[in-house]
Amino acid sequence: MDYEQIEAVKLTPEQRRRMSAVAVQGLLNLVIAQGLILLLVSLLALIFAGKWSALSAVAGGMTYLIPTSMFVLHLVIRLLSERDATAVTFFVGEAVKIGVAMILMLLVVKVFGSNLVWPAFFVGLLVVLKAYVLLLLFKKL
């Protein structure tokens, strides 16, 4: 294959705006889905396992929802400002998101102490991590 013959796709400003709008909507849908599924799981934990289970589920989910929301905000601002997004920007943002999530997890363990209900914590974390599956099922992503 002759790589000198390959040209980059050039988008018109209107095409770029439309693609950015779709991307922004998908990102916002992700954060909303994460929040809603975390709320549902937390309510179920409250009903079936009590206050500390519900708080542990919320804490587990929020350890990933907060950094994800910050990263999504960064991406949305970048898309709306019409600046080019680069792979480096994305990977640095992902690394920061994971680092902040780990710090938040450590804080939750320290603050909750022996009151932390580990299964509920991990379920809250897991449902936030996998909320995008709901969006794929409902074709919103």
Tell me the layout of helices and strands.
Elements: H1 13-49, H2 51-80, H3 87-112, H4 118-129, H5 132-137
What does this structure look like?
By secondary structure, this protein is mainly α. Helices cover 79% and strands 0% of the residues. It contains five helices and no strands. It has helices spanning 13-49, 51-80, 87-112, 118-129, 132-137. The longest helix has 37 residues, at 13-49. It is elongated and about 60 Å long.
Spell out the key features of this protein.
0% strand; 5 helices; 79% helix; 141 residues
In brief, what are we looking at here?
By secondary structure, the chain is an all-alpha fold. It is 79% helix and 0% strand.
Termini, distance in Å?
34 Å
**What structural class is derived from the secondary structure elements?**
mainly alpha
Radius of gyration: 19 Å
**How many strands appear in the DSSP assignment?**
0
Q: Report the portion of residues in β strands.
A: under 5%
Order of helices and strands: HHHHH
